Amino acid sequence: MPPASHTESAANVAPIVVVTDLIKQFGRFAALRGVSASFDAGRLYAILGDNGAGKTTLLRSLAGLTRPNRGTVSMLGTSDLRSVCHQVGYMAHPSLLYDEMSGMENLRYFARLYSIEDNERCASVIRAVALDPELARPVGQYSQGMRQRMSLARALLNDPKILLLDEPFSNVDVRSAREMVGLLAKMRDAGKTIFVVTHQAALLEGAADEFVWMEAGKIVSRTSSLQPVEAR
């Protein structure tokens, strides 16, 4: 009997992430307005929508970086997100790298925060995003695309079960972006659950399991294929 696909293997298993009635306000602006959804393990979710739709706020809520005004986030079976933060990788829109350090020096620093004392682990995630761990140039001299790939490497350091990525393809050339998508698809196939906030949805066509459309702080549609907004 052939092995089950990643979609089949996720069947009949409790969702890995559940959000219930999430509300987040910044002053009078409601970034999230009663978002409720569940997400299965081993799937790649593309979070789509216009600016201000609530995509990044939802991602930051999953990461435990934004506290909702109301509602709950449950991840890996617990609402205590601090207890599972070591199993989550987060890539913010800004690279959050130290410009004066090389890529390898950056990853060694962040690895120590995870109590990882393994230079080969740092080198392997740099190679995974198609960069050279021997490159001595400071990150401040990297192109924007290189910085994005190094930021992704940082998010992969702790071999997370859940990966949260905010605009990972921003200012990345098409070839490199496609290589990143291929890497994400392989990680999904290996059982990781991946959320990608992006304005470049076409890059994920054929790789994402589900496109989650947001509008005005709500999830308005979930589709298995990329469709124009007017077709939803």
Question: What are the main properties of this structure?
Answer:
Rossmann fold, six-stranded mixed sheet, 6 helices, three-stranded antiparallel sheet, 232 residues, alpha/beta, globular
Give a short summary of the structure.
This protein is an alpha/beta fold. 27% of the residues lie in helices and 25% in strands. The protein has a domain of 158 residues: Rossmann fold (3-Layer(aba) Sandwich).
CATH class of the domain at 6-96 and 159-225: Alpha Beta
Which structural class should the secondary elements be placed in? alpha/beta
**Number of continuous helical runs:** 6
Specify the helix fraction band: 25-40%
CATH homologous group name of the domain at 6-96 and 159-225: P-loop containing nucleotide triphosphate hydrolases
Strand content: 25-35%
Please outline the major beta sheet: 6 strands, mixed
Strand order of the largest sheet: 5-6-7-3-8-9
CATH third-tier fold name of the domain at 6-96 and 159-225: Rossmann fold
Shape: globular
Annotated CATH architecture of the domain at 6-96 and 159-225: 3-Layer(aba) Sandwich
Oligomer: single chain
Low-confidence stretches: none
Mean pLDDT: 90
Write the layout of secondary structure elements.
Elements: H1 6-9, E1 17-26, E2 29-39, E3 44-48, H2 55-63, E4 70-75, E5 88-91, H3 103-113, H4 119-128, H5 144-156, E6 162-166, H6 174-189, E7 193-197, E8 210-215, E9 218-223
Parallel strand pairs: 3-7, 3-8, 5-6, 6-7
Antiparallel strand pairs: 1-2, 1-4, 8-9
